[in-house]
Amino acid sequence: MSTAELHTLTGAYALHALSDDERDAFERHLGDCAACAQEVRELGATAGRLGLAVSVTPPAGFRDQVLRRVTTVRQEPPRTSGGGVSVAAVPRRRPVARWALAACLAAAASLGGVAVWQHEQADRAREEARAAQRQADQVAQVLSAPDAKVASARLAGGARGSVVVSHDRDRAVFVAAGMASPPDGKVYQLWFDDGGHMRPAGLLDPARPDQSVLMKGSVGEASGMGVSVEPNGGSEQPTTSPVALMSLPA
Fold first, then answer.
1. Which of 93, 161, 230, 245 has its CA 20 to 30 A from that of 12?
2. What are the extents of the domains in the chain?
3. 100-123 pLDDT, tens per residue?
């Protein structure tokens, strides 16, 4: 069974719905997968809450009544016709049994929805982690490129910014140190200067004063770069005076 298939078994495991072989394989997988372990804990807790939500407290004396009737009611043998069991031999389900079955089905459906949501959340977290790792790898490739060159400048408020360019890779990385938080509802945006035309090149994380960001897009024919304060989400063109302008190293 592949790792991708094992990731899908968290809901079935929490409901004890796996075969012995599947359960053994999944429990070995749990030791190496923190996301699935967390998902199983959450699903198990949810299953318990759902079970309590549909539980029924028996009336007082119900146990004694059942045990007393067991000793006094004779079990009726099945009536057959032509070697088969007649329909009359099958006991009718009482309304309470039907209600309990419906409640169990509703709980299972609700749990299934939770399991799907939890699995989607785990998938999203894993994809975000993979994207962050890809970005970090690309930043490292630019910074360590044999032809990498750097230009630095003082920014407003005593911050410092550097841009590292690899023309062989046609990419640039902006390194910020000591950046003050932008005003509420604003974000720092990076720009490539293509002969006086400012081209969007990504956003800085407003919560991080120190960061290294792979600038969006290729360096191309850009001769410089800039940083401006823009509304959340960024702008197509700068809407404020730049807080930094730097020439790219040749």
1. 93
2. 1-54+96-136, 149-247
3. 555 555 555 555 555 555 566 666
SS3 of the chain: the string is: CCHHHHHCCHHHHHCCCCCHHHHHHHHHHHCCCHHHHHHHHHHHHHHHHHHHHCCCCCCCCHHHHHHHHHCCCCCCCCCEECCEECHHHCCCCCHHHHHHHHHHHHHHHHHHHHHHHHHHHHHHHHHHHHHHHHHHHHHHHHHCCCCCEEEEEECHHHCEEEEEEECCCCEEEEEEECCCCCCCCEEEEEEEEECCEEEEEEECCCCCCCEEEECCCCCCCCCEEEEEEEECCCCCCCCCCCCEEEECCC
Quickly tell me which residue has 């408020």 as its tokens. 157
Structure tokens at 166: 């690899």
Percent of the residues in the chain that have a pLDDT greater than 90, as a whole number: 25
Token digits of residue 124: 């999203």
